[in-house]
Amino acid sequence: MLPIKPAVNEKETGISTRSTNKLMDALPCPICLKPLFPPVYQCQNGHTACASCCKLQLTKGTCPSCSAPLGGNRCSVVENIIESLEINCKYDILGCLKTVQYTKLSKWAEHEDVCEFRPFHCPVVGCNYEVPKLILPLHFQDSHNGRLVLSELQPDDQRKASFTIETGDSDYDVCHSQYVIVLVSSDENTEDQGSDVKSFFLIHHQVDDEFCRYSFSCTTFGPSIMSTRYRLLVEIEKPGNLKVNHTIEGPVLDNQEDKTLLSKVVRHGDCLLVPKLNDSRLGGSSATRKDFSFRVQLLLL
Ligand SMILES: [Zn+2]
Ligand SMILES: [Zn+2]
Ligand SMILES: [Zn+2]
Ligand SMILES: [Zn+2]
User: Which Gene3D superfamilies match (predicted)?
Assistant: First the structure.
């Protein structure tokens, strides 16, 4: 688990604790001790105060330090310093290099909410790992026997990602819950231009041997366009039997908002179910799972 705690006052102020702390150290309002923000006022002796403190009944328009009038004169030196301040993303220790001007900080919360480096809980039931989103594919590979599928897919293009899951694979026999991670190239049209940040789809494929059930689900970890633009399509093929070509299709779900989504999808069966192997649509009774292969595609809507 990484040593990251949610910012205590982030919702209230839109400013992250890390950022706020840095500024409070450097430039607090001497009256309310909150970070100074333009307009900043000063008395004739150079004592500064924020706009709301100048209006307070408590101060009655006078400087609490020297009783000189306060609230008429702006302090352009301090305002200029504040306007030149740049704040790091609170996930800088995890690798985010983005900065923002302090005066645009209210918009910054939007970045930190979707920052590619913010930590995610691994959605696998029982796994408490928490890592930046971009590390998740490697975590799935290392800890959950996940398979990485590289794709040239971009969120904005017309291509589809497709790959095949061979049920006869030796790996497949030992692992009844399979994760396939489809890495997606960064979208050149987003603000992440120039970075090699990638999104990915996580396809969970489960086999229930006892009931001969196969299920598929597909989730993304944002941006949300990934879930609204794509659908998961699974073609069930029985090589050598041209009559068997059954297709199932379902939505791509957004893991971003709901960290327990994957476990819910699996537990509640809210996923694509392949017909039982002895179903007539799959060619009849004597089939075993080694007879089938699944061609999985992500289709652009
Ligand atoms: Zn103040
Ligand atoms: Zn004063
Ligand atoms: Zn960031
Ligand atoms: Zn995990």
Answer: Zinc/RING finger domain, C3HC4 (zinc finger)
